[in-house]
Each structure stands twice: as C-alpha cells, then as structure tokens.
Amino acid sequence: MISMVSVIHIPDKTYKLSCRILCQYLLPTQGQFHDLKQLYMSANNNATPPSNSSPDGESTDRSLLEKAGLSESDVEPPEESSKDCVVCQNGTVNWVLLPCRHTCLCDGCVRYFQRCPMCRQFVQESFALRSQKEQDKDKLKTL
C-alpha cells in the first residue's frame, strides 16, 4: 500500500498567497518517503486546455473551494503546457530530462540531446511521460 501526502497552502489573514500545493510525498509501507518534484513544462500561447474535465468534477472543485472559504478567482489557474517540442515545434512533448526536470522534447528529438535545450544542463537520465501505445490510443480517439 502507498499513501500520498500533500501539503497545501490555504490563504488566511496572515498569508494571503493564493491556494497552492507546497509539496507532495509518497509514503510506501516500507517506511521510506519519496518527495515528488514538479516538472517544468514548456509553454506557449496556443496550448489547449485538457479536455477531460467534466461538469461533475467542476462542481466538486467548486464545493471544495467553498468549504475552504475561497472563490475560483482566489486559486491560481493550472500551468498550461505546450504540445509542441521546443526543438522541432511539431512533435508532442513526451520526455522528462533529469536532473533539471524540463519536459520539452518529443520522441523524435530526445535521442539527439545530451544537454537540455532549455537550460543546457547535462542530461543524466530521461523518461517518457506516456508510452507509444498510450499515444497511439489517443490519436485514434481524436480521429
């Protein structure tokens, strides 16, 4: 069994910063803990918002905000991520580069980089966000 702990800031009289997740941890039953880190996505103006939001999910979010004494305008909008690779501008971003955590390359461009194209830090490891099977499945859904 694995538990996830999220530390969330909720605005109050002392700190009026917007509502946000401060940190997240995974706690497996073995007694260790893993600090989850934010990924840095490339962004542009023509990014499309995720299409998986449902009216029921939006009303649930609204009721949670009301319970915390917040309005929707108090919450920062989620960071929009680009679908375009920062190198070729055509491929869908799918690769996370470590240790910098930039998510900016498509499947076709990742093999050509030993340094991150965003920050020029040496890439020690990288991993795909989605498998080729998942990407193909999504392409079929949109057709």
UniProtKB/TrEMBL annotation:
Name under which the protein is recorded: Cell growth regulator with RING finger domain protein 1
Subcellular location per the Swiss-Prot or TrEMBL entry: Endoplasmic reticulum; Nucleus
SUPFAM superfamilies: RING/U-box
Protein purpose: Able to inhibit growth in several cell lines.
Annotated region (Disordered), positions in chain: 44-84
Pfam families for the chain: zf-C3HC4_3 (PF13920)
Organism, scientific name: Myotis myotis (Greater mouse-eared bat)
GO molecular function, one term: zinc ion binding
Every RING-type domain range: 85-120
